[in-house]
Amino acid sequence: MSLRNQISSVLISFLLLFSLASYADESTVVIENNDDLLNVITQLTTQNSELRENITNQKSQVQLINDEQNTISSQIKHVQNTLATLDEQGEWLSFSTALGETLRQQLLRLPEKPKSQTLDANIAEAKVLQLSYNTQLDNLNDYPSLINLTLDNSQLIQYRRLLREQSELLKTLVSGCDTIILELTKLKIANKQLINAIDDVNEAAHRYFFWVADVNPVSTSYPVALAKDVVFVVFSVDTLSQLYSATIEIVQTPQTLLLLIFAVILVVTHFKSKSKYHQYLQKTSSRVGKVTQDSFSITMRVVVYSLLMALPIPILWGIIGYALQADWDYPVAVAFGYGVNAAAPILWVFMISAQFASPNGLFITHFGWPIQRVRSAMKYYQLSVWVVIPLVMIVMSFDQYNNRQFAPTIGRFCFILLCFALVFMTNAIHRAGVPLYIDKKGSGDNLLSRILWIILLSAPWVAIVAACLGYLSTAQVLLGRLEASVVIWLALLVIYFMIRRWMWIQRRRIEFERAKQRRIERLAQRSKAEEETGNNQNTTTNSADNVEEPVIDLDTISSQSLHLVRSIIVMVALISMILLWSELHSAFAFMDNIKLWGTKSVINGVEIEQYISLSSVFIAILVMTITIQLVKNLPALLELGILQHLDLAPGTGYAISTISKYIILMIGCMIGFSFIGIDWSKIQWLIAALGVGLGFGLQEIFANFISGLIMLFEKPVRIGDTVTIRDLTGTITKINTRATTIVDWDRKEIVMPNKAFVTEQLVNWSLSDAITRIVLTIPATMDANSHLVIDILKRVAKECEYVLDDPEPQVFLVDIQEGIQLYELRVFAQEMMHRMPLRSEIQQLIIEEYHKHNLKLPFPPLQTNLEALGRKSGRRTYTVGTV
């Protein structure tokens, strides 16, 4: 229901309810004498007359509703007959152009879709009236029964008769309101049935006529027919006079005149502000690329200003088309207005492209595209404005005028010229090297981009051939959808390069700050060195703004982020293409008739054979493609959009992403397989049997798979942890569903099954704390001073840069064996990677301290004696250099 009808219904209901309230608020009838009784009789007589008139109006209204119902019923039959004729004759349309024209004439005679908004308002009004009559009927009980014998007996009889008559009239009106409401509801249902029938006919016509020639093929008589129609349009249709009269009527109409004045003011403002716009572009272009002055807000303002500068002329164009379409008295003006409206958005796209391609505009200055390539792409801009736009207007105008009377001649000729113009424009853009798809390496020269370009370059030629063969409407619709898809695709590419520029600016700022900090540190160190050497020579330093700006390779540094951006843009592009081409789904219904194989399914105990058509296969392929894209891009999308904003434990985000991938893959496979006849009810027993068989035959693989899931949630290891399992020590780099990759100290990658991490002993050096303890065994001769050795070891531990102060290093005299003192130095390192550097440095310091204090190391006899002691006594055997 439209807003206007809703408001009117509410107002009617409010007024009726207000009248009811006023009626109810009237004072109770008081009759004390014959004069009062006479007044009441007069009032009842008037009311009864009005009620009888209302009953007559009710009967007339019911009759009108019944007549309209009969009309709607006949229209439904006519539409259904037309649908049946289409279904019967549809398969013969490809053999006869005359048959197609006859059926199209029948479609033109179809009734218009009824509007049910007024019915809703009438139903609401009838319900309010019914409530009013019920209230009046209840108020009759307030009239006195009048038993007073002093009143005139004849008047009393008339009074009671009028009351009974009014009661019957009100009951009749209440019943009549029920009838009206019922009949209006039936009429509303009939209107819906008519609308559904018309929609079915339109869908069937679209399905049958889309792939059928709508005009005769081009023959030798075509030039003669074209010349005759051109002469007829120019001299006989009275085109100029109709356009002139329509223009006069537009100027005399206040609404359209105000819109035109507004559009003209916008255009004048546009031309006056054009110089300021170019000055702003020149001013901002000098800041682009300078790390201290460049910002993404400059690019955003340039984009917004360019869109606004390209808008006034298309607005004026659209208003002119709207005004012409409103002049129904002039068919030529209406058709021309339709063409002008269709060309307005195309004109806006061309003007936006011109603004972006200006020397200081978005493409050259902000995106850094070569100026020669941009000029090559815009080579035929004048052709697009002065040729493409008029041709689009002419084609769309003749497509709407007088049942496409001139579409086979003038319309087809202009469409062919339009296709040739698109050939020149597309070739220019292709030679300029504009990418249609950017791969992971950031290159536009890839297989998908080449395939898309082949489609675009061949599309105008295919449209020309189709138009010459008689498939004019089909060629126009498909080419229009394809060009709209290209516009959407190029708009998404512009968004991608804008995001790329934002990332580039952020990266340059970070690198500049780092470079400036390094420069400050170097200057500080140089100044300190000069002070220490007493060199008072003044040094000249450049300003921080003149620091050399680093060159950033964005595709190498931010490849993962750019890959995520590309994936999101590709998904948006696919969704846009599906929505854009979904209007033509009925045109591709012929694929439902191409049956590939059949399947049998049981529904309610009845076995039904179903056939898998070509359309089902295409839908299944589309579902699987979308599923694969989601599985590939979901982890990065979740990480960027959701997980990084949540306070999750390390590894939990990876577990959520992995489980989400499996769920999406399973759901997508089930949906895709269902379209080709492989649903869950048919394969559940097969999957169960395979599960049992594979459980025995591939139990190790399943064990590793389940162990991988356990690792994802229990997190005994995480990416980056240093672990020791079996005889292997290294760092975790990948945790997959079957195996985990470990990089050892030799930089070798070892793939370890996940089962080992769950069932075997595992040492995680950095699970909850990365700090690790190192125990060094240091021997000394028997005559060495033990207090001196302990002091030396403690001092050495404090001097080593890799040793942590907390926990504090410890030194113990742990054993005396065969004239040898054995000391243990227990220290702590920050991380696993510091173990070897710490051992090396601290042992060097120990050797130096031993030499300073004339202490001797009992080596090599120590190793032999210790091994012998270990074998005899069973005590711990100390091997120098062990961890």
Automatic annotation (TrEMBL):
Stretches assigned to the Mechanosensitive ion channel MscS domain: 701-766
Give membrane topology per the record: Multi-pass membrane protein
Region Disordered, residue ranges: 525-545
On whether Membrane is a keyword of this UniProt record, the answer is yes
Domain Mechanosensitive ion channel inner membrane: start-end pairs: 259-597
Which key words are in the record? Cell membrane, Coiled coil, Membrane, Signal, Transmembrane, Transmembrane helix
Q: Which residues form the Mechanosensitive ion channel MscS C-terminal domain?
A: 774-856
The residue ranges crossing the membrane are: 256-273, 302-324, 330-350, 380-398, 410-430, 451-472, 478-499, 568-591, 652-677, 683-713
Q: What PANTHER family does the database record attribute to this sequence?
A: MINICONDUCTANCE MECHANOSENSITIVE CHANNEL MSCM, POTASSIUM CHANNEL RELATED
- Name of the protein in its database record: Miniconductance mechanosensitive channel MscM
Species of provenance = Orbus sasakiae
